[in-house]
C-alpha cells in the first residue's frame, strides 16, 4: 500500500513510498498484514479529505486575518521574492543537517528533543485554531475575566513594549485543554493526537504565511519543485530523514483500521509540506478573488480543484510505478497552470500579475533611494 511520507520542518518534504511495502511486510517478519482494498480506500480517502480541509479553513481565515491587520493598521509580514528564492536552499541545508545528525547520534534522543519542541508549538497551534470552539463550550459557571500581560523596557517617557498580550480566563481553559491533547501525543504518539496537531499546524501555516504576489508564489513553488525532485530521486537523504523523524509534521491514517480498530499500526501518511506549500498559494488566489469584488471565488475554486486532481494523480502514480514520488512534482504544475489558464480565458492575466496583497513600503523606499542616487549621478 502506498505511504506518503513527508517532513516539513523547515526542510523535509514529500516522500512517497509505493505499495510494495505491504507485500514485503508480510514476508520480512514485520507482522503487518497486507491492506485490504477497503482499508486502502478508507485510508487514502481520509488523507485526501484531511488535506483539503486545512486549505479551505486556512485560506478563508487568511482573508479574515488580512482584514483584521489592515483595520488595526498593523504591518503585515509577507514572504518576499528573496525569501522565496532562498527557501529551497535553506531547506536543503536543514534537510542535510538532519540527515547527518540522525546518522551520527541516537534517533531516540534527537526525537525526544524534537517531540518536546513540537509539543510546545502544537499546544499554541491548537489554541489558535480551536480557541473559539473551546471557548464557546466553556460552562457559564466559569467566570469570564480579562487579563493583560505587559513587559516593558524603558521609563515613562520612552516606553518599548517587549510583550503586550491580552487574554481571558476562557483562553486559559482552552490552553489547558490543548495542553492535555499535547501531553497525550507526547506520551502515546497516538495517530489521532498526531493528526490533531498536524491539522492545527497546517491551518496556521495556510492562514499566517502570506505570499505577497503571484510571482513570489510561483518562485517558491518552482524552487521547491526542483528541491523535491532532487532530494527524492537524486539521493536517499529525504527518505532516510522522513523515516527517522518523529513529529506531528505529517497526517496519518491506518490502513488496517477495519481489522484492528483504534490500535491499528499500518499507516498511510501525507506530509504537511504537500498541504501548506500549495495551500498558501491557493489562499493568495482567494484574496485575489476578493480584490476583484465580483462576488465569486473562481480562482480559488479552480486552483483548489487542480490541487485535488494533483493529489489524486500522486496517489495513482505511486500505485502504478511502486516507487517513491515527490508529490510536488504533480501538485506544482497543477496549482500554477490552473490560475494562469483561467486568467487568460477571463482576460485577467495582467491583473493577476499586478496584484499585491500588501504593497511593500520597504520596496518603495528602496526604489525612492535608488531614484535619488540616480538623480545625483545625472547631475
Q: Any overview of this molecule?
A:
With 379 residues, this protein is mainly alpha-helical. The protein is built from 14 helices and eight strands. A two-stranded antiparallel ribbon has the order 1-2. Strands 3-6 form a two-stranded parallel sheet. Strands 4-5 form a two-stranded antiparallel sheet. Residues 1-30 and 364-369 have low confidence and may be disordered.
Short key terms for the protein model shown above:
8 strands; two-stranded parallel ribbon; disordered N terminus; mainly alpha; 379 residues; two-stranded antiparallel sheet
Strands, helices and their partners?
Layout: E1 3-5, E2 15-17, H1 20-27, H2 37-72, E3 78-79, H3 81-104, H4 107-137, E4 146-153, E5 160-168, H5 169-188, H6 191-208, E6 210-211, H7 214-234, H8 237-244, E7 250-254, H9 257-260, E8 267-271, H10 273-292, H11 298-321, H12 328-346, H13 349-354, H14 361-378
Parallel strand pairs: 3-6
Antiparallel strand pairs: 1-2, 4-5, 7-8
Amino acid at each position: 500500500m502506498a505511504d506518503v511520507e513527508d517532513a516539513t520542518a523547515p526542510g523535509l518534504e514529500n516522500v512517497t513510498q509505493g505499495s510494495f511495502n505491504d507485500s514485503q511486510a508480510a514476508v520480512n517478519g514485520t507482522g503487518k498484514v497486507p491492506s485490504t482494498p477497503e482499508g486502502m480506500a478508507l485510508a487514502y480517502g481520509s488523507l485526501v479529505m484531511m488535506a483539503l480541509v486545512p486549505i479551505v479553513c486556512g485560506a478563508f481565515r487568511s482573508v479574515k486575518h488580512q482584514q483584521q491587520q489592515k483595520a488595526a493598521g498593523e504591518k503585515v509580514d509577507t514572504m518576499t521574492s528573496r525569501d522565496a528564492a532562498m527557501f529551497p536552499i535553506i531547506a536543503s541545508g536543514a534537510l542535510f543537517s538532519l540527515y547527518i545528525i540522525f546518522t551520527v547520534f541516537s534517533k531516540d534522543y534527537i526525537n525526544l528533543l524534537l517531540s518536546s519542541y513540537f509539543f510546545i508549538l502544537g499546544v499554541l497551534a491548537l489554541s489558535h485554531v480551536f480557541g473559539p470552539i473551546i471557548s464557546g463550550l466553556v460552562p457559564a459557571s466559569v467566570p469570564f475575566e480579562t487579563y493583560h500581560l505587559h513587559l516593558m523596557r524603558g521609563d515613562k517617557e520612552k516606553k518599548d513594549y517587549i510583550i503586550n498580550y491580552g487574554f481571558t480566563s476562557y483562553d486559559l481553559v482552552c490552553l489547558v485543554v490543548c495542553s492535555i491533547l499535547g501531553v497525550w501525543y507526547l506520551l502515546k504518539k497516538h495517530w489521532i493526537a498526531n493528526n490533531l496537531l498536524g491539522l492545527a499546524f497546517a491551518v496556521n501555516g495556510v492562514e499566517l504565511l502570506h505570499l505577497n504576489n503571484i510571482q513570489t508564489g510561483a518562485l517558491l513553488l518552482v524552487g521547491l519543485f526542483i528541491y523535491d525532485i532532487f532530494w527524492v530521486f537524486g539521493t536517499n537523504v529525504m527518505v532516510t530523514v522522513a523515516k527517522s523523524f518523529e513529529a506531528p509534521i505529517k497526517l496519518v491514517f491506518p490502513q488496517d483500521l477495519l481489522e484492528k480498530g483504534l490500535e491499528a499500526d499500518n499507516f498511510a501518511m501525507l506530509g504537511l509540506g504537500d498541504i501548506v506549500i500549495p495551500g498558501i498559494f491557493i489562499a493568495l488566489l482567494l484574496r485575489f478573488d476578493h480584490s476583484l469584488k465580483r462576488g465569486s471565488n473562481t480562482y480559488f475554486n479552480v486552483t483548489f480543484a487542480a490541487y485535488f486532481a494533483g493529489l489524486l494523480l500522486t496517489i495513482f502514480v505511486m500505485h502504478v510505478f511502486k516507487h517513491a514520488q515527490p508529490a510536488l512534482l504533480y501538485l506544482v504544475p497543477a496549482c500554477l497552470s490552473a490560475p494562469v489558464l483561467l486568467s487568460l480565458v477571463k482576460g485577467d492575466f495582467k491583473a493577476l500579475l499586478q496584484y499585491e496583497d500588501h504593497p511593500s513600503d520597504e520596496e518603495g523606499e528602496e526604489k525612492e533611494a535608488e531614484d535619488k542616487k540616480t538623480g545625483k549621478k545625472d547631475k
